[in-house]
Design a protein that fits this description.
Elements lengths: L2 H22 L13 H18 L3 E4 L13 E12 L9 E6 L2 E6 L4 E12 L2 H14 L3 E4 L10 E11 L7 E13 L4 E7 L2 E2 L4 H7 L5 E2 L1
Parallel strand pairs: 1-2
Antiparallel strand pairs: 2-5, 3-4, 4-9, 5-8, 6-7, 7-8, 10-11
Helix pairs in contact: 1-3
Length: about 220
């Protein structure tokens, strides 16, 4: 899986895990129930106000592609942000592997030997300490401090490891709001497509004379 695809799956996975918890708590409308129209967008805004009326507050969840969350903060929010990519701690065997693609037919396959560590920020912005504590607890219910997660939106993909790397209290009190930033590390992502070499002939084994082997001090000779 290419770099952009890998990061997109991780970002969508984190978004969905947190979104499901917010919907379960009744703190945000279920965005999957709205159509692709301006009327549906207006209905979402109406439903968001209804959550505020019913519960006293509401939460909007912004993904990494959002550009407008830095505007006027009308309700509490959780924001996913790109942080950085750095070289990982481990790689893969640069020689690749020989895979039998069909009976008697083999192919050399080589993945990228470069692994990267991906850091992603999750920012909470609220109006008071009670809401902040609630969302902090919700985040740690949705995401592990250290553990593996399976993507709920990409079936069949392997689990990936998440580690809480750092926390930071945002200095936003002068604006009348509170903020907390969590940075999660997803280590050793293999970035790059699998390279496939030409098909190879099957390997045959030739057994030389045991007497010659013993005389020359060799094992059976492997040749093609």
């Amino acid at each position: 899986m290419a770099l952009n695809d890998t990061l997109e799956v991780i970002e969508r996975t984190l978004y969905e895990l947190v979104r499901l918890e917010l919907v379960s708590e009744g703190l945000t409308p279920d965005v999957t129930t709205y159509g692709n129209t301006t009327t549906a967008y207006e209905q979402y805004q109406t439903d968001l106000k209804a959550v505020v009326t019913a519960k006293g507050w509401a939460v909007e969840l912004f993904g990494t592609e959002a550009s407008n969350y830095r505007g006027l903060e009308k309700v509490s929010r959780i924001v996913l942000n790109h942080n950085t990519l750095v070289p990982g701690d481990y790689g893969v065997d640069p020689t690749g592997e020989i895979v039998e693609t069909s009976p008697g037919v083999f192919q050399h396959k080589q993945g990228s030997n470069l692994a990267m560590n991906y850091f992603i920020d999750l920012v909470i912005i609220t109006e008071n300490q009670k809401e902040l504590r609630k969302l902090m607890a919700l985040i740690f219910k949705a995401l592990p401090v250290r553990g593996f997660k399976q993507s709920p939106i990409e079936i069949g993909l392997p689990q990936f490891l998440m580690v809480l790397d750092s926390t930071y209290r945002l200095q936003r009190e002068k604006d009348g709001i509170l903020g907390q930033q969590y940075t999660f590390l997803i280590p050793d992502l293999f970035m790059g497509e699998i390279l496939e070499g030409p098909e190879l002939a099957a390997i045959s084994e030739i057994h030389t004379s045991i007497y010659i082997n013993e005389h020359l001090g060799i094992q059976n000779i492997i040749t093609t």
